[in-house]
Each structure stands twice: as C-alpha cells, then as structure tokens.
Design brief:
globular, seven-stranded mixed beta sheet, 27% strand, Metallo-beta-lactamase, Chain A, 243 residues
Length: 243
C-alpha cells in the first residue's frame, strides 16, 4: 500500500504553525521525500519518520522552504551512522546550491567523508528519470528561484502522485496531473493573485481541465487557512493518505 504523508504542509513563513514543505511517499521500497524545507528534520522526527530510511529527496525548486532542510538531513545521517545511500534530485545546479548551503551553515561539512554516499541528479524538462524505486517526470513551471522550477510527476509502487511545488498557473500543470492518482497543489492565496504562486480561485476556474480524481491543497497562507475551500481537500501536518 502506497501512502503519502504530509510531514510539512506549510508555506515559507509557518502560517498556521505548520512545518515547511515535506511530503513522504512510502510503502513500495525505500521511502522518498518530495521537497525538504528547513524545518523538515524536526517535522520528520515529530512524525516518527526515520530520516535514515529516506532513499531519495526530490526537489521541486531551489528555495529554502523546499530544499533547505537537506543539509540537516545529511548531517543527521552522518552522526547517526547512516549507511543507506542518499540520492538528491532537483533542478540544474542542485549540487552546487546544496554544497554552498552546507558551507554557509557548517563550514567544511560539504567535503566530509561519510559512511553513506550522496549522489545528485538534475531534472530535464519532461524527461523521465528512474531513481531507485520511483520514476519521476519533471515539468517546468513558473516560479523564479534562481534555477528552473518544476512540478513533479512521481510513479512509485504502481501509483502516481503529481505535485506542483510553487508556481503560477501554467499549462504544464495540466500535463503533469493528467491521469495521476493524486494531485498535490499549492494553494497559497484564496482569491488574490500573487506573482509566481497559485490561488484557489484560479484552481477553481481551471479544475475542469485537470484530469485527476483527487486534489489536495498544500502550502497555504493564512489567507487560505482562514477561509473555506469547498471542493478541495486540504493538507495538514501529519495527514496520511492512501494513494
């Protein structure tokens, strides 16, 4: 049984007291993360998710609330004597950005010899990649982050989850979601449009074009958390759904 756990469902600013983006797919081989914000290590331990079992981290884009927890994940593995290899997949430049972040936070940490290998894969738009127990197809979206940003279509254990990351509405989302079992969608604002982000009003307008039976909103600001979103499920920290 494939499960998706919202270890972190919040925005960059902790709206509603929520942890930053961190989704765990499990049940068909090594668990994997979709995004890993700065707060993710704490969130995983609070949710009783063992960080040392994570086989891969799939990054939608290179903003701190989506990838900034990886240095802590790597260091936790070092000090807990992790041996399982860790794969980090993300936009072009992900390896350089990761190593730069580690050097800013803990100088010298990017070059330490560890018991487990860390490897990197860079996304290419619409080019499927088989990564251990999953297959991922990235779709470039509209979100400025110093490198291309992507929605991710992840097939794992015979089930498919599409995930927007952060983005304004764009046609590639229709392709990413088509035929998926679950579509996890940024719902940052309720009706006000903010550049590079999705709002619920736009999702309501475009929903007839989204060929996916189940949609769950995540990355919600207080503007959304304080309003109703009829017709959409809403993520919360700790929510576990069967895919």
């Amino acid at each position: 049984m494939v499960q998706l756990q919202f270890v972190g469902s919040g925005d960059a600013f902790g709206s509603g007291g929520r942890f930053q983006a961190c989704l765990v797919l499990s049940g068909a081989g090594a668990p994997l993360l979709m995004d890993c914000g700065v707060t993710s290590l704490v969130a995983m331990k609070r949710a009783s998710v063992d960080p040392s079992t994570i086989g891969a981290v799939l990054i939608s884009h290179l903003h701190g609330d989506h990838f900034g927890g990886i240095p802590f994940l790597v260091l936790d593995g070092q000090f807990s004597r992790r041996e399982l290899p860790l794969l980090i997949a993300g936009p072009p430049g992900v390896e350089a950005r990761m190593k730069a972040a580690m050097e800013v936070l803990y100088p010298g940490s990017s070059t330490v010899e560890r018991r487990f290998p860390v490897s990197y894969v860079e996304w290419q738009d619409r080019a499927g990649a088989t990564l251990g127990d999953c297959t991922v197809t990235p779709y470039e979206v509209d979100h400025a982050s110093g490198a291309p940003a992507y929605a991710l279509r992840v097939t794992y254990g015979g089930r498919t989850v599409a995930y927007t990351g952060d983005t304004a509405w764009c046609e590639s989302l229709v392709d990413a979601a088509r035929g998926a079992d679950l579509f996890v969608v940024e719902g940052y604002m309720h009706s006000r449009q903010v550049k590079f982000h999705l709002d619920v009003a736009t999702l309501e307008r475009e929903r007839p074009r989204i060929e996916c039976p189940r949609i769950i909103l995540t990355h919600m600001s207080n503007d959304v958390l304080q309003n109703q979103t009829p017709g959409f499920e809403r993520a919360a920290d700790g929510l576990v759904v069967e895919v």
